[in-house]
Fold these 2 entries.
Entry 1:
Amino acid sequence: MEKRAELYAGKAKSVFRTDDPDYFVLMFRDDTSAFDGQKTQQLERKGRVNNLFNAFIMEKLAAAGVPTHFEKVLSANESLVRNLEMLPVECVVRNIAAGSLCKRLGVTEGQELQPPTYELFLKNDALHDPMINESLAETFGWASAEDLAEMKRLTYEVNGVLKQLFLDAGMLLVDYKLEFGQADGKIMLGDEFSPDGCRIWDRETRRKMDKDRFRQDLGDVIETYEEVGRRLGIDFDAI
Ligand code: UDP
């Protein structure tokens, strides 16, 4: 597969075409951003760490029967993925209260959420990714009722797989955001799964081990991502 022109540069990743229109190269850069891009920083090794972290998680999910766009790792900071027609909707599951949920509802950070909650947000930087619901998504054509049902089913299925995976490695999966797209008329998990898009706490001490370290200036951002990965059994020097 030959890498061709850059198609799109996001805040932390770039997408390149290949000589096959069905496949893209996803490049994980060292750029980190938070608060709608207001806070940015280059963090050494981040591209490599998130690329290999994402590959590990996507492979676990695929093995558990979740269809994903991930094909294979191409280099330290690049992976080959299926070209999906992305839906502009972010799906968030929460097992423990944190982040915007606490701000919005005034609930205490750390409160266990049983059953885990499910929220939808519109992917729109200019509008600061507003919270939406299935009715709005359907009416405005962001996703069909069938797509929404499948996205919800898959997002909860991911929770079943990953909650246990992190728990077995001494960590709590607090919350996470997923994005989906379509290929061959099928809904598939797209984008990435890395400590940039989820919250992970140490099981015993509840130390934050995700992008909140960057958002809240807690330090050792990438060192902590690497610790999460090592606990899961990822070798970041494998490539
Ligand atoms: N999240 C994300 N991208 C976004 C918004 C949220 O990856 O544009 C992730 C975030 O890292 C967290 C989860 O989704 O793991 C829930 O985020 P929340 O709604 O609490 O918003 P935040 O506090 O991150 O602004």
Entry 2:
Amino acid sequence: MSAAIIDGKAIAAQLRTRIAAQVARFRQSKGVAPGLAVVLVGEDPASQVYVRNKGKASVAAGIDSFEHRLDAATSQDELLALIGRLNADPSIHGILVQLPLPPQIDAGRVIDAIDPDKDVDGFHISNVGRLNTGQPGMVPCTPLGCLMMLRDHLGDLSGAEAVVLGRSNIVGKPMAQLLLRDNATVTIAHSRTRDLADICRRAEILVAAAGRPGMIGADWIRPGATVIDVGINRVPAASGKTRLVGDVEFDAAVAVAGAITPVPGGVGPMTIACLLANTLTAACRAHGVPAPEGLTT
Ligand code: GUN
């Protein structure tokens, strides 16, 4: 048997269509567009691609996109001053500072300077606290996208045995919280976990966010499991160029898993769609109207 392929690109396209319709309604009723500011410091090539894609997707959904590209030598104080201006600007509902930042800047200080209500990345400590205590806040885009795909494919996650491989603040930890909120039984595993393969093999839901290409082979996967591959790793290709692969050995895993997300075309498109969803949610809250159903948890 071969696993069902969870088509993140198609699910994201549907979500973006719904968001565009809701953005149009928001613009009509409020007379303003949701506004997203994306800040890029330096010239990291991967970050440049991400920022460009975020800007294009925003405009396609009817969201006003404001890109701030700053020199790699920008000081922390200059960046904090920009954040202060964006916090105070009523036409900006969402602020995203692309990570990583150059070494002279403390990312934690910058994230904590963002108004939590505009923190569409969901990285501010106040949003982390809200997620962990079950209060409405901003939920990080990548885990939110993974949760939407899991709900779409499995329906109710109650009681499911879930393993999250990876403990980053961006993916692993918020993913575990979201699964817990949906009543899954959650294990967070990581590079120091003993018997890692055995623990992964227990999972009915396996979310791979380790950042190591092809780390998870077929023998780490419980037969019939739903596998979400968050990895985006660039590796040399036979052609002499490079290609993107996930953390899961896709070709082998397909023979064992019940369902799996491909790389590319799985988690990546959902992350961008969820950024648009968070921006619309933030704009609605700023204008005192309820966020549309299904855009957040
Ligand atoms: N760099 C890699 N992933 C992300 C993300 O989700 N948000 C931001 N701001 N930077 C990133």
